[in-house]
Design goal:
Radius of gyration: 20 Å
Oligomer: single chain
Structural class: mainly beta
Helix content: under 10%
Strand content: 35-45%
Number of strands: 35
Largest sheet: 8 strands, antiparallel
Distance between the termini: 40 Å
Mean pLDDT: 96
Low-confidence stretches: none
């Protein structure tokens, strides 16, 4: 499936890296990859320059003195561009020394909002593991939800005076557990729900109550799985019924593929080959070969990566090709179409137990078609969490714009659809978190559609 193109990354020395987020770091309308550096190694920002990637991280973002592991982006101040939350963790659980960073670009300069005196009282000094963006009210103004380990979970939002507030308690999200991973999207409701995968205890499913608060319902929805230790999580429509399903990589335990049932709990349908335990980190669901059906990629540390594809209604293990990395120390992975060729690329970070360079993979060229959708909020930023449906005469596909991808990472904020040999798309539907629905009939294929919010 994958071909190694790591040589396209200039100056790619071995180092300790963890999470990856895809966002527009330099404000030029193109997406870059932000890769966290750990234990004295700097954060890296890879920008595609047409022939290769170049690290463009300015000194404030490089920040080598911290212990960065997780990262996510969203528009927290409604200025139309995304801020960066960098999760620093210098302890396994509980209290830590190094606070997180929340970088805001003002007049081309990056400032850590947590370093401002007015925000120091809400520093996150608990060891966190993952971060995701959450727009709990559908207003287009996001907050950052932090899955902490051994301390209360956090939800950072800006108030009307521009001061950071931890709203987790007010939103009924301030649970204490072994927090590991988190995804946020309209899973059960039209607004953003939150699924958090935990270690040493049950997972959480927070259903949006519609009033800015959440109800935890993992047990009744069949997702608690209390005897496993969650790592990577991804979301997809795995059986084509129009509902989002959840794939969970459990650390050295049985992996899960939970199918959502109408008016009922989720049901684990992971085939035996997929369920086989591994030392999993990131899990990615995406259509890498543009055949119209998503694959599932398991990024492991210290053992081969794994890839599963849909074949005649069943999931089968297929070779990931050169992305198998049998000796890879994978810690995080992300996808994007950096070079605008209509095919998703795979970027993998390594570290923790040893220094390794980043790796970068392409999929072989084929003549399958594609369509990509980038919805924007009322303020002009990527509408993370928005739903996109693509309808053809044969079938309907659904995607959620990524808000935070399970463990440590965040994908590009684009709905990528493979079309196979289909050349006719009946319509695309974009549904924002405020309920606004926009339909585009007969959209052009083999291109990116940037969709502004109708009230933007």
């Amino acid at each position: 499936m994958f071909t190694d193109r790591t040589q396209l990354i200039r100056r790619n020395p071995p180092q300790l890296s963890y999470g990856i987020a895809v966002t527009d770091v330099d404000g030029d309308g193109k997406f870059e990859a932000f890769i966290t550096g750990f234990a004295g190694f700097p954060n890296v920002v890879l920008k595609w320059m047409g022939e290769s990637f170049v690290n463009i991280a300015p000194p404030p973002l490089a920040d080598p003195a911290r212990q960065a592991i997780g990262v996510a982006a969203c528009d927290i101040d409604s200025d139309g561009s995304e801020e960066l939350y960098v999760l620093n963790t210098d302890s396994f659980a509980g209290a830590k020394r190094f606070a997180d960073r929340l970088f805001d670009r003002v007049d081309g300069q990056w400032t850590d909002l947590f370093s401002l005196p007015i925000n120091r009282s809400v520093l996150n000094l608990t060891a966190g593991r993952s971060v995701a963006s959450v727009d709990r009210n559908g207003s287009g103004q996001y907050g950052f939800f932090i899955a902490n380990y051994g301390g209360p979970m956090r939800l950072y939002e800006l108030d009307e005076d521009g001061i950071l507030r931890d709203m987790a308690k007010a939103a009924r999200l301030d649970y204490v557990t072994g927090g590991r991973s988190v995804v946020a999207l309209p899973l059960l409701t039209p607004r953003m729900d939150i699924f958090a995968g935990n270690e040493g205890g049950a997972n959480f499913l927070f259903r949006n109550a519609g009033d800015g608060t959440f109800d935890e319902i993992a047990i009744e929805m069949g997702l608690a799985d209390p005897f496993e230790n969650a790592r990577g999580i991804s979301v997809l429509d795995g059986n084509g019924d129009g509902l989002f399903d959840i794939v969970i990589g459990n650390w050295e335990g049985a992996h899960r593929l939970y199918y959502q049932q109408i008016n009922g709990p989720f049901r684990n349908a992971a085939p035996r080959e997929m369920a086989i335990p591994s030392r999993v980190r990131t899990v990615i669901a995406a259509d890498f070969d543009n055949d119209g059906y998503e694959e599932i990629f398991f990024n492991n540390i210290g053992e081969p990566n794994r890839l599963f594809a849909q074949r005649d209604g069943h999931w089968e293990a297929i070779t990931p090709g050169e992305a198998m990395e049998p000796n890879g120390l994978g810690t995080g992975a992300a996808i994007a179409d950096f070079d605008d060729d209509g095919r998703l690329e795979l970027l993998i970070a390594h570290g923790e137990s040893g220094m390794q360079p980043l790796s970068y993979y392409h999929t072989p060229y084929n003549d399958n078609h594609f369509l990509r959708v980038l919805p924007l909020t009322q303020h002009g930023a990527p509408a993370r969490g928005a739903l996109v449906r693509l309808v053809t005469p044969e079938r309907t596909q659904i995607r959620a714009i990524d808000a935070g991808s399970g463990y440590l990472c965040q994908m590009e904020p684009v709905a990528h659809f493979g079309l196979g040999q289909t050349t006719e798309v009946t319509r695309i539907e974009v549904q924002w978190l405020d309920g606004t629905l926009l339909t585009i009939d007969n959209p052009a294929i083999d291109t990116l559609h940037k969709i502004e919010h109708p009230t933007g």
